[in-house]
Structures are given as structure tokens and as C-alpha cells.
Amino acid sequence: MIKAMILSAGYGKRLNPLTLKYPKPLLKIGNQTLLFNTIKFLEKYGVKEIVINVHFLGYQIIDYLDKKKFDLKIKIIEEKDKILDTGGGVLNAINYFSNNPFLIINPDTLWNKNYHDELKLVEKKMNEEKNCECAMLVVNKNKSFDINLKGDFNLIDDLINRNDKKNYQYIYTGLQVINPKVFANCKNKIFSINEIWNKLIEENKLFGIKSKNTFYHVSTLKIYENLKNKF
Description:
The chain is α/β, with parallel strands linked by helices. It has one domain (4-230): Alpha-Beta Complex (Spore Coat Polysaccharide Biosynthesis Protein SpsA, Chain A), CATH 3.90.550. The protein is 30% helix and 23% strand. The protein has 7 helices and 11 strands. The protein has helices at residues 18-21, 34-45, 58-68, 85-92, 114-128, 194-202, 221-230, and strands spanning 4-8, 28-29, 32-33, 49-54, 73-78, 102-105, 134-140, 154-156, 159-161, 170-178, 206-210. It has a 7-stranded mixed beta sheet, sandwiched between helices. Strands 2-3 form a two-stranded antiparallel sheet. Strand 8 (154-156) and strand 9 (159-161) form a beta hairpin.
């Protein structure tokens, strides 16, 4: 079964002042934290092992996980001195995943069981498309709860591209399956995963699956308050 990494080291600055006291993954929608929702989503999918990287207020996440005692194996990796950004955070944990493709997921999307079938399609694309080194779940901007979110990519015949920067139609949902070998030649310790994506786009090795779900993403303080009222 696929292993997963939950990216939890960020500052969540767009949710200040809340995130001055609490790390973003520990903010609650309803009665549960965003991190709880993400872990349960993975657990119900069948994931048995996950890595969680922490930095800002990371001790709170560590304490939270110790108290919750989730029914799957969790490896915590602390980025103690400096935050390593999304790409560097994954590279720092890469040895945990051996040579097998693994899932990277963001905890600030409200994941639910409807995403399980779409994750299966992402895995299928990764397994069956010979040229695929990364497959990600994307959603059309018109399905985003936050109407102010800008697109990240365009998508043609399942291939991700960034050809028309002023007219990106698809948003990255925060879910991707990636081959660890794409990190093999990374020389910097601190970098955005966008550097990996851009290289894969040039090589026609980054594929996208369209999500049919409404995209609920905790992006700003205003959106967070609106989502709390909705759920």
C-alpha cells in the first residue's frame, strides 16, 4: 500500500492572527482539526504509514499526535533550524519512501470519502502511464469555494502545462503521487516543489486528473470563518 507525506511545516500567514498561536493543521472545522481530517482520509483509504514534517509551532502537532494515538504508523520529521519549503521538506524525508512512488498531501483541503475514487485514478495514472513521474489531482477554478483563488496550471489531454500564465484554469488540490527519483539531482536543501513540477512539465512527465468535487480549501482567515459556518 502507498505511503503518504502530510506537509505540515508552514507558517499559515494568511490566517494570522490565529496561526500566530496555533499551526494551521491544528485549526478546526467542526469538531475536528484539519490534520485529523487528513489522517482519517488516508486511514480510510488504506494508507498504513505516513510522514508528517513540522517546523513552526511543531511541538503542538507532536503533542497532538501523541494524545490522539491514530491507528497507523506516523513518522514525524522536525525541520528544526530552518523551514525547508515544500520541495525541501519532501527531499528531507525522501529516504523514508525507498524507491516507490508515494502520496504527498496538504492538510488545508477538506478531504472526504468522495476523493477516494479520484485518488485511485491518480494512482492508476501513475502506474499505467509510462512517461508519468508525477500525477496530481487538479480542479477547475469554477468548482472552488474560494472564488478568489487563482489557477496554478492548464490541462490538455491529462498533461499539465503552464503555457498561458494569464489564464490558468486549474487549481492544485493538494494531492499528488510522485516518483522519489525526481528528487535525485536536487542540489539545494530549501526549495519549492514548483521547481520539480516545472522540470517535469518541460519533459511532459507531469499529469493531472480532474476532480469533480467542490474544492474547499482553508486559504484565508475570511474563508476559514466561512467554512466553519458551513460545516
